[in-house]
Amino acid sequence: QQQVKQSPQSLIVQKGGIPIINCAYENTAFDYFPWYQQFPGKGPALLIAIRPDVSEKKEGRFTISFNKSAKQFSLHIMDSQPGDSATYFCAASMELGSARQLTFGSGTQLTVLP
Amino acid sequence: EAGVVQSPRYKIIEKKQPVAFWCNPISGHNTLYWYLQNLGQGPELLIRYENEEAVDDSQLPKDRFSAERLKGVDSTLKIQPAELGDSAVYLCASSGSSYNEQFFGPGTRLTVL
Lengths: 114, 113
Prior knowledge:
Radius of gyration of chain A: 14 Å
CATH superfamily of chain A: Immunoglobulins
CATH topology of chain B: Immunoglobulin-like
CATH topology of chain A: Immunoglobulin-like
Oligomer: heterodimer
Number of domains of chain B: 1
CATH class of chain B: Mainly Beta
Number of domains of chain A: 1
Helix content of chain B: under 10%
Order of helices and strands of chain A: EEEEEEEEEEE
Strand content of chain A: over 45%
Structural class of chain A: mainly beta
Largest interface: A-B, 19 and 22 residues
CATH superfamily of chain B: Immunoglobulins
Order of helices and strands of chain B: EEEEEEEEEEE
């Protein structure tokens, strides 16, 4: 029940394309949904996050769409660039005791071709 | 401001040998995390510290893994003895509290031969 399922495992798009990465969760106790970007040899870095009281959040070229009833959320990258090539992880956070716990999806390796 | 520092960045050892990883969190961050990241997978929490206290170590294989955070700052994660299946990236992260954003270090890539 604490799993976050992410798809696809890998994605290749042309420069300017709009890659879409999807995630789904089961546990309705999750109440915060961040996305992380990880470059080779680096740790994950927070990219954008959303709370379930809104259906969409946009920051620059990155947009999260959130469907609370379906328990799904997705990341869209507008006008993708070769520099966006990285691994993207969705995550879900919930309060557990007196702290918050973060559960990651399995990751999507994105390649943006020039 | 310096980020989370980890060392070594890479470590190759033979099975049954001990190994230790070191993490220096961002200054002032009370919460420190150790994660395991297998190839092609997302990070999985091993242990979380609030200052010097390990408050969530339910996923730490205690038969061979141990961790400490002396004085509530730097932390060390140890494996003794290492097994082939321990080959992975070990990530350290820190945050002001568990309610704040986590900042990750670059990780230590462990290869067990």
